[in-house]
Each structure stands twice: as structure tokens, then as C-alpha cells.
Amino acid sequence: MANENNTITVETTIDAPLDQVWKCWTTPENIRQWNNASDDWYTPSADNDLTEGGKFVFRMEARDGSFGFDFTGTYQTVKEKELLEYVLTDDRKVSVAFGESDGQTKVTETFEPESENTVEMQQAGWQAILDNFKKYVEKQ
Question: Is residue 114 a contact partner of residue 89, using CB atoms and an 8 Å limit?
Fold first, then answer.
């Protein structure tokens, strides 16, 4: 839900321990499996330097070849199994918080919206990717 600070927050609770969730979120071989909002998109490549000042590049493409883009940013904060903060190439800030309770892990993403698409569309798109992540992790 968008809030007064001009950010959007999406979240999910995953029926899996934090160690598994963190590994699936941060390792390129896993990122390639879940990083899409719908089945007509995929991530053919993912590079992730999980260090403060490190960069990531996730290539996202339409399966029909009609469109593709690099989702790229630089990590500002890396607290293992707790918090990731990064800045996208368009200077928008994103934070991803992880918390475990009773064998489940809550993932909360907060990000600054871009100006091309509506807040509702951005929230729905990021939530769809997060929902796909949950589905992927729970199948592991």
C-alpha cells in the first residue's frame, strides 16, 4: 500500500525458514527461477554481488521476445538474513526486510515509485513478483 512518504510496500509471509528464503532471494540460480510477475516473462540471467557497494543485474525478458530490460542497482546496506537496501539506476531507493517467526519468514519490500506507471500498477507488479517468489520457495 502506498503511504504518505511516497513509497509503496508489498509483503508476503512464506512457509519456509529464513535460511531457505534468504538463499532463494540472493543466489543467481534461484533468482532466475522466480523473478517474474507472470508466466509470459522470465529472467534469463542474474548477477548478484551481495556486498555493500556491490551491483546486481537481473535481465528480464518477455518470452515472445517482444521486450526486455535490465533491473539493475547498487547495494547500500547488506545485513545478512535481515535487510537489503539498494538504489536502482534511476536513483529510486528500495529496502527488503526479512523476519522469521515460528518457522515462517515475512518479506517486506518498500520502494519509491517511478513516474511512468500508476502506483496501483507498480504495486500489483511488485506484489506479483513477490507472490511468485513465495510460490517458488514453498515448492523447494
Answer: no
